From TrEMBL:
PANTHER family: CYSTINOSIN. Belongs to the cystinosin family. This is L-cystine transporter. It comes from Penicillium steckii. Keywords: Lysosome, Membrane, Repeat, Symport, Transmembrane, Transmembrane helix, Transport. The chain crosses the membrane at residues 12-30, 42-63, 94-119, 131-149, 161-184, 196-219, 239-259.
């Protein structure tokens, strides 16, 4: 970009988009726990979602934090991407990830009656698939660290061999994997119940707006550097935005079109929110 004034404007617009998407995505974490608190119940919310969600955002916090504050990781990125030199990770990415981790943990704890006293359906149990995914994601970075230490001639400092940046990329891929699969249990639960009652649509609306803004910032940053490898050099941000938008559209269709009148239906299940719910404090979710 040869025009200095235009470059200043684009950089300012990029920062504005970054903070806008951060606030939009951050806001998406509040409606569901507030809704649960008002109902004193988690019925209608798939427990698989918060179980893996906090792990995903913990990994994303590590990824964004090291790209911002680790000189080694930044140098290795610059060596692999000489045209752009600087990763397209911004402070707002890290701020969002850290905030999301905390809120995800709070939502997960709402499935523990001993903490909040909420009603938890006896059907709200973590699936074996999600448990396997959870522990597989915990072990995966350890495997990559072992590969780096065993195959790198200088202990992971050579950016063109197995390096520490590959460990950080592993955390980002874990976040991406979790994002791809975490929405599926909720979409399936809505389908089985033919209802979105008990599950808030507001987070998906904030989520959709954040995905669009995040994608716009990534494209703008890459155009600013005149290097479109800035997009592929930050694959997690690119794919997170697209996957988020895709699933948000599914939820929007479920809530506003397919099951629009579900709140008036008599759902023949324990989670029928049109009838009083029995508060059974002995009901506990399966622990990870």
């Amino acid at each position: 970009m040869n025009d200095p004034q235009l470059e200043v404007f684009v950089r300012a617009l990029s920062r504005l988009l970054g903070w806008a998407y951060m606030f939009s995505w951050s806001a998406s974490f509040y409606p569901q726990p507030i809704y649960n608190f008002k109902r004193k119940s988690t019925a209608g919310l798939a427990i698989d979602f918060p179980t893996v969600n906090f792990l995903g955002f913990a990994c994303y916090s590590i990824y964004t934090g090291t790209f911002l504050y680790s000189p080694l990781i930044r140098d290795q990125y610059a060596a692999r991407h000489p045209a752009s030199q600087e990763a397209t990770v911004r402070f707002n990415d890290f701020a969002f990830a850290a905030h999301a981790t905390v809120l995800s943990i709070i939502i997960y704890t709402q499935f523990w009656p001993s903490i909040w006293g909420f009603y938890v359906s006896r059907f709200q149990r973590i699936s074996s698939t999600m448990l396997g995914l959870f522990w597989g994601c915990v072990l995966a970075p350890l495997v990559v660290i072992w590969i780096v230490l065993s195959r790198s001639p200088d202990g992971g400092n050579d950016p063109f061999a197995w390096a520490w940046i590959d460990v950080i990329y592993a955390f980002s891929y874990i976040k991406l994997l979790i994002t791809v699969v975490k929405y599926v249990p909720q979409a399936w639960l809505n389908y089985k119940r033919q209802s979105t009652v008990g599950w808030s649509i507001a987070p998906m609306l904030f989520d959709f707006a954040g995905g669009v803004l995040s994608l716009a910032q990534l494209v703008l940053d890459s155009s600013l550097q005149n290097d479109w490898s800035g997009i592929t050099g930050n694959p997690v941000k690119l794919l997170l935005s697209n996957v988020t938008i895709f699933f948000d559209l599914i939820f929007i269709v479920q809530h506003y079109i397919l099951y629009y009148d579900s709140s008036d239906r008599k759902l023949q299940s324990e989670d029928d929110l049109t009838t009083p719910l029995l508060r059974d404090s002995s009901s506990r979710p399966q622990s990870v």
